[in-house]
Amino acid sequence: MKPASHHTQNSYVGGHIERVEDYRFLRGEGQYLDDVSRPGQWQAAFLRSPVAHGRIVKIDASAALALPGVHAVVTANDIEGEIPTIPFRRPNPTIGPYAQPIIARDKVRYYGEPVAMVLADSAELAEDALGVIVLDIDTLPPVIAREAAMSDKVLLFDEVKTNVPTVFNADKGDAEAAFAAADYTIRDQFYTQRQTALPMETRGLLAEWDAKLGKLSVSGAAKLPFFNRKAMAKMMKLPEEAVDYIELDVGGGFGARGEFYPEDYLVAFGARKFGRPVKWIEDRREHLMAIGHSRECSSDVELAFSKDGVILGMRGSLYVNVGAYVRPNGMTPVRNAAQFMSGPYRVPAIHLDAYAFVSNKTPAGTYRGPGRYEGCFFIERLMDQAAAGLGIDRLEIRRRNLITHAEMPYPLATVLPSDGRAETQCDSGHHLEPFELVVKDSNWAEKAALQGKLIDGRYHGIAIGSFIEGGASGPQENVRMELHADGKVGLYAGSSAIGQGLETILSQIAADALELPMERIEVFHGSTTYLKEGWGSFGSRATVMGGSAVLDAAKKFLAAFKIHAAARLGVTIEEVTVSEGVARTADGRSVPLAEVVKDGINVDGSFKNQTPTYTYGTSFAHVAVDAGTGHVEVIDYVVADDVGRIINSMTLHGQVMGAAVQGFGSVFSEELVYSDEGQLMVGSLADYLVPLASDYPVVRCHSLESYPSPTNPLGAKGAGEGGIIPVGGVVANAVANALSSFGVKPNVLPLSPSRVWEMIEDARAKA
Amino acid sequence: MKIELEVNGAAVSAEVTPRMTLADCLRHELHLTGTHVGCEHGVCGACTVIVNGDAVRGCLMLAVQAQGAKVTTVEGLSLEEGLTPLQQAFKHHHALQCGFCTPGMLTTLHALLTDEPEASEERIRDVISGNICRCTGYVPIIEAAMDARASYQQSRGDK
């Protein structure tokens, strides 16, 4: 294989470009948080609540403090004044009282809530010390299930009289009138189980306090370094400039890693209070109980149709268990489920109520495709049932309702109360295009004969479904471009790397815009030290927002180059043209970029945009169900999406495929199970079953760029999440199709072997 | 207590406690941080190293058990400069994203393909099913391994 050689203009973007990050990762030279240590550092370990709900009576740490190598035990009593609560990223008027305190003072509200932090010479000694701290808690009745929570009989927060922080309303048109006029309606109840993103690197931080400068440095940033710096500064009562967030290599994000968690504050608090570097790295059991959970959503929803299968309206209620507190991004899955349930379909009238309720479970946040995966499962299950009820082919009913290019921009429901994203619209695209591609590529016409057929002891089923994926989260991204002494261009980006190949993507865009080989671009990212302000990587935004900011910076960089070159050549700026790193005059004189190093080029670029992009697509599943064991094999899976403009076909393919396989984990095996007492019953990767290499060998992905986004100069759309969104609905429909002779309704996820087997046995018992 | 072993071809010694795992010893005592720790209970495979020719979970083996052993980590699989054919194949097939599971994938596959350079796709899938990757969906990892077989077949032929 050849290394990337000198390309001429506009040849990197759109290419199949191998990643610049890979070299260090493949040689074991990546630098993740736990690979970094400081002399004299202390290690932190957290004592966590062993019960779901209770009042703290006593914490006696004397035995722990007596152990050699143990330096301190921090509890709520060490925090002066009010216990700080973690600021919201998406505030709304009613969630204030539900914010998470950085440590439990009087009450514990979930199994795993931090109640004390031990600081010791090593992680082992700190963990030893946890074992001898006496923690006395008077238990309170746990609030676990939706009915108990919404009854408000036991309140999580005594000062507010309800366990329902917010009810979001998604509205469009007149839903009641639509239902009154309908020829056919279909209503059903669904449930998506509690899950977590599970990045392979657990969370961790290294905090250092410089007492002389009054500066705090936090290594281990991910996703949102600039927001987290603001949050930390606010809670620490420090000026923002006194806090730096430093990004190292990040072992996966998927929405959960990089949000501000209670431990983040406590680790920094320890460093500041004791003047020692403090490091913390989470173990996997802690990770499962403490990082953001997501997806636990039940629904009772209804679609109205005309007799020819045209959707007239949608209504119903969604109920999301957000856990014990509202975390910084905890409401996003709730409002998203309401806004995006209509998905790729033309739904003229909508009224949905989305209830967020608190419970004594780990507080929730986002996981790839937040709310969208849930909503897609609900509507796709209804679509297949409607097709059967109306006697219309499953492909045909979708063709009649998918949004077309002529209807763009297509408005979705408005969601109130607003968290800053009340109104939105699909930006571009023709949803029938990926749909027909998948119909063809999946060989639907031939496979249709398999529906419900028993072959060699297994029932076969197929299904198809479509989705939209929001991306390009606003409001802005910044970059800085600097000419380095060696003639390379330093690109300092506010976007963060979370494993998605950011360095490669931004290098490609910059190299094309500057007409330089990629090797001459060096990308620095994710740390607050590079830029005054930045945003990061969330909501599938880094390519669109960061990449568009790169275009702006490149324009200014070339303009500055022209100014310097013109001065050196003794001509006006207008007389200079620039291409491939060389400024030229008409009479043949020239100045290469490396020659203006002494003049200095250092420019800022930015891109402002509050209009999300909407990638859209379709997926297909063919499954075989063993009625004896309940095991479901995915025989074939195809997904096609249109991302507006492909920047790197290889990394895009990786995003779509990786997301699809994560989706299989969502559908079949991953579940954070709680006991009735609120104990998390999942403590290891032997209990939390993510997909393995032997599980889903066949996944095929196709990406299109037929309809660029009008919202940004690249024409690109966010594409990191779409692959996971349709998996629940499509696979559940394929299972329903396979088991149509039993009349089962797979409305509750995950479709574990035991659940599938039970559905079949229940159907047999009734027959 | 002191242990003596061979790591990546060099004789080394380390001062370890009886409860220290081999993975922690490699990472924290010998500063070979290419070996990653993802679960500490033997499920994810990120900490896989090669001990006397076998792929072993560094988190399930105590450092003291490595007394006298020959240990190879991802650093030991790497060339002075450039990439090995297996590493090249990973890059070419986009078989890594965040890179955290990658060292364990490489050590596991290296041990497998050294012993079984003709391993079938099914065999590779089966063996690599002991290593969790959350990013790629595995398909490109299998493709990379299939691609890299040729170089292992060749080096076996060379012997």
Explain what the structure shows.
The complex is a heterodimer of chains A (767) and B (159). With 767 residues, chain A is of the alpha+beta class. Helix content of chain A is 26%, strand content 26%. Chain A has a 7-stranded mixed β-sheet, sandwiched between helices. The radius of gyration of chain A is 27 Å and the shape is globular. Chain B has 159 residues and is an alpha+beta fold. Chain B contains 6 helices and 5 strands, in the order E-E-H-E-E-E-H-H-H-H-H. In chain B, strand 1 and strand 2 (10-15) form a beta hairpin. The model of chain B has no long low-confidence stretch (mean pLDDT 97). The chains are: A alpha+beta (767), B alpha+beta (159). At the A-B interface, helix 1 and helix 16 of A face helix 3, helix 4, helix 5 and helix 6 of B.
Q: What order do the helices and strands come in, and which of them pair?
A:
The complex is a heterodimer of chains A (767) and B (159).
Chain A (H helix, E strand, L loop, with lengths): L21 H5 L15 E7 L5 E7 L1 H4 L4 E6 L31 E2 L5 E7 L2 H8 L3 E6 L6 H6 L14 E7 L2 H6 L3 E9 L2 E2 L7 E7 L4 E7 L3 H12 L6 E5 L14 H13 L3 E4 L2 H7 L2 E2 L2 E9 L5 E13 L8 H9 L9 E9 L13 H19 L3 H6 L10 E2 L2 E3 L8 E2 L5 H10 L2 H4 L6 E2 L2 E14 L4 E8 L5 E5 L8 H13 L6 E5 L16 H28 L7 E3 L2 E3 L5 E3 L9 E7 L4 E14 L5 E11 L6 H20 L31 E5 L22 H12 L14 H14 L1
Parallel strand pairs in A: 1-13, 11-12, 16-17, 24-25, 31-32
Antiparallel strand pairs in A: 1-5, 2-4, 2-6, 3-5, 7-17, 7-19, 8-15, 9-14, 10-11, 10-13, 15-16, 18-20, 21-22, 22-30, 23-24, 23-29, 26-27, 27-28, 30-31
Chain B lengths: L1 E6 L2 E6 L6 H8 L18 E4 L2 E4 L12 E3 L1 H4 L7 H8 L9 H14 L5 H8 L10 H20 L1
Parallel strand pairs in B: 1-5
Antiparallel strand pairs in B: 1-2, 3-4, 3-5
